[in-house]
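*** Residues and shapes ***
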Amino acid sequence: MKWLANSLIVIGLGLLGYFGYSLYQQNQMQSVTMAEAKVAVQELKTENNDDDTISSFSADKHEAFGLLYIPKLDRSIGIVEGTDPDALDKGVGHMSSTVFPGQGEQTILSGHRDTVFKNFSQLELGDTFVVTMPYGEFTYEIRETEIVDAEDTSVVGQMGEEVLVVSTCYPFDYLGYAPERFVFYAYPVDATIY
């Protein structure tokens, strides 16, 4: 019986070490992405941005290109192109099939609830998201939320107006693969074009 107790302790310590290392590694990747995003925003700024520059902006897969700031949480996170697991390990993922801020349609950003979107359960209607791009800064106010099934793709599509859609796994405190997604719909309230 003592060998069983010792085995369980060793297994527990091994799992704890594994999860600790995974968390450390993910934090390191997000720190690198944040630094890359800041550099990208500065380097890609040009003095003669216009509507053509905004409408033609694009990013390569897994490229860090912008910053998401959540004033209520006083938190900035790097935005990368793509929503595959590698992209989401680096930071906030931009869904490639949607446009970028300022382009007049739906922009979708996604992230993990237990890493980049930690504490998103504190956000409420009226709170804001600020997206900094190489061509400007865009402020959006949360006006709607909904909870959808994890496999529900109905939130993706043309909306006929500029909307920032931010999604994460739900329930926020769920352990393992979450069965649902929490979706924030935020509408533009201010923009500064560089």
Observations:
- Strands lie at 64-70, 75-81, 92-94, 106-111, 128-133, 136-149, 163-170, 180-193.
- The chain has one domain: 2-193.
